[in-house]
Amino acid sequence: MKVAVLGCGPAGLLATHAAVLQGCDPVVYSIANRSETNGAMYLHRAIPDLTSPEPDGMLTYLKMGTQAGYARKVYGSPDAPCSWSRFLEGPVPAWSLAAAYDELWYRYHSRIIEHRIHSLNVEEIIDEYPLVISSIPAGVLCRKPYHKFMSVNIWIRDKAPAAIRPGEIIYNGAREQDWYRSSDIFGYRSTEYGEQYRPGTPGMGLVKPGLKPTCNNCDCWDGLLLKVGRYGRWEKNQLTHMAFEDADKCTGEKNALHKL
User: Which of 140, 97, 138 is nearest to 115 (CA)?
Assistant: First the structure.
């Protein structure tokens, strides 16, 4: 079965990998630029025929302050839903997203067709392929100007406080510091701040803007393509490995029907 994947970031290439494992023939439509895989990013589970079954290491979650304080820093409201309670304090297995993405790029970059996808040409791809999987920002495909795509702006610093030890991820809901999360993941140290923070403090190091999608009300292309990844689905609580799981399930079901 032919499959079209939109986007060549980690979510897009994990979807491509899932399609290959299901015996399909995926083509990736994207501008062939690699995504950055730094910061508080790692795989929470092993990916078949890609990573080792054993984790690359263990990370430890720690918390300071309160959930309300964390939500206020990230989303501007103490009552906002957030990931504070999703991750318990203590050790968790972790797989390197950077290493997995390197391998995915090596295997599948030759499948990329340089193509800028937008709301006016995606229908052509949908008409051509039995299954289309999109990891590109959902708003790019939206055809209705009244649909809303909510998000919060953040700032990411390429350093972490000296107290952050290797392998630690600290959720910070305390009032004493501006940052809400800091980590040392496989040697990459970073600290994240809410949009109320403004960069430029001497000695802070490189600080760059980021974006956290939160929710949307778009139903464009529902039932016609599968959206995967945090940007593809444009919602919270999307971990990177879920793109593989969603694509694996949908591709397996579609492929079974295609063979009938």
Answer: 140
What is the per-residue pLDDT for 198?
67
Nearest to 59 by CA among 184, 238, 172: 184
The H-assigned helical ranges of the chain are 10-21, 67-75, 97-108, 122-128, 138-141, 229-233, 241-258
Q: Are residues 33 and 134 in the same domain?
A: yes
The whole-model pTM stands at: 0.93
- pLDDT tens digits along 65-110: 999 999 999 999 999 999 999 899 999 999 999 999 999 999 999 9
Q: Which residues, listed in sequence order, are joined to residue 248 by a DSSP beta bridge?
A: none
Taking the C-alpha atoms of residue 204 and residue 120, their distance in angstroms, rounded to an integer, is 43
Q: Is 185 helix (H, G, I), strand (E, B) or coil?
A: strand
Q: Name the residue range of residue 129's domain.
A: 1-37+96-147+217-260
Residue 110 belongs to a domain with what CATH number?
3.40.50.720
pLDDT at residue 206, rounded to an integer: 64
pLDDT computed for residue 36 by the predictor = 82
Q: Is 154 within 8 Å of 210 (Cβ atoms)? A: yes
In a domain, 120, yes or no: yes
Do 157 and 257 sit in the same domain of this protein? no
Give the tens place of pLDDT for each residue, 14-32: 999 999 999 999 999 999 9
Is there a single domain that holds both residue 156 and residue 203?
yes
Same domain, 72 and 62: yes
Closest CA to 169 of 235, 242, 78, 70: 70
